[in-house]
């Protein structure tokens, strides 16, 4: 079981790879679209990479609820 | 003939000869070949193992994250267009972007993305296919990205006429400016499909040279030993501008795009008309459109791709439409055949030939075809005063495009 910090840093790695986000900017309170400038197509890539990295399934109807990094950490922590 | 003058104010390119226009032109004047053994491992499996790969990979110019959403043909279109835009000086000219259009095509388009993503689909399933796949493979992608980059708002056009695409892009740009729909058009062509599938397809048509042991000698237009074209990748872009607009802002003007002629053969999907009838009509139209006569055209940058069938038909055409006086060359002997980008790169070579009063050489013309009775600048660049010159491009499907450039 990964800790919240481990999940956050794993997401930061994915965000850097897929969307060029600086890992130092990634924190639970940050919005993917408004703060980190991740557009909808890049978000699809982030979700697919996160599924693989954390061994979770993130259905499309869940993705719309993942507004912030913290939302994603909560979902992954509860489902992996 | 139109009463609206259109001039060239910016040039950009990334080619097998160099990562920009200056290095590409230097290589051409020095007679260097951009052809080599393919550096890709699949080449060992094919009968054709040579090609003209980009001298500077786009990943050296565009950052990694941006490259994830660009097909290679889109990336190099952007590189060439941005160079041409910077060269034109329009960035700081306060141009109304509703007067800026784009005319940019590709012969084959985003096939590299299509084929690579199909591999991913087959191996890993739908979930792994990039969500950027469609905008990367769509044939209007390069034109659209150029339009977005430069915020062009007068219309973005993407044509596809095989190996005549780059030249057709220039012709459409001329029409757009003459019609009053835009003051400036960024026009060009791009191609980047060095992949085993198109290689296999062209090789099985017996259209490509198999001179695998002497890659630098493989592209040899009009030579008796020619055995097919050499596949290349690259992009070229030209900023075309209404002449009075360019003069009003004190722009540096390279040349005029004085006329264009487009025809179609209505004959065969791949074979050129052996008597070059469509080519003759295109050349004649372009000369008339420029308000000139054949006697005025002193240099032709020929389409000549180094195929046994195609090269000599154009010679018949040049003699019929222009005469026996022009000094001709095929810069494909050095760059390889850039397919949809060929007409753009060769337009740039024609423009610079006018500017510098020099015809770039046709290398490898060691043993000219018996029917070659025109003056070719063989082996070495030749000094020549060039008030007006023509660039020819012909494409699979029977597309013929001739462009006439003159001194400003």
What's the structural blueprint in terms of helices and strands?
The complex is a heterodimer of chains A (80) and B (408).
Chain A: H1 4-19, H2 40-54, H3 60-63, H4 69-79
Helix pairs in contact in A: 1-2, 1-4
Chain B: E1 6-14, H1 21-29, E2 36-37, E3 50-51, H2 64-67, H3 72-88, E4 100-106, H4 111-124, H5 133-137, H6 141-150, E5 156-157, H7 165-179, E6 184-191, H8 196-204, E7 234-242, H9 243-248, E8 255-264, H10 277-289, E9 299-301, H11 310-321, E10 327-329, H12 332-335, H13 342-356, E11 358-359, E12 375-376, E13 382-383, E14 388-395, E15 399-406
Parallel strand pairs in B: 4-5, 4-6, 9-10, 9-14, 10-12
Antiparallel strand pairs in B: 1-7, 1-8, 2-3, 6-7, 8-15, 11-13, 14-15
Helix pairs in contact in B: 3-6, 7-13, 10-11
Account of the protein in words:
The complex is a heterodimer of chains A (80) and B (408). With 80 residues, chain A is mainly alpha-helical. Chain A has 4 helices and no strands. Chain B has helices spanning 21-29, 64-67, 72-88, 111-124, 133-137, 141-150, 165-179, 196-204, 243-248, 277-289, 310-321, 332-335, 342-356; strands at residues 6-14, 36-37, 50-51, 100-106, 156-157, 184-191, 234-242, 255-264, 299-301, 327-329, 358-359, 375-376, 382-383, 388-395, 399-406. Chain B is globular and about 60 Å long. Chain B: GO terms for molecular function: 3-oxoacyl-[acyl-carrier-protein] synthase activity.
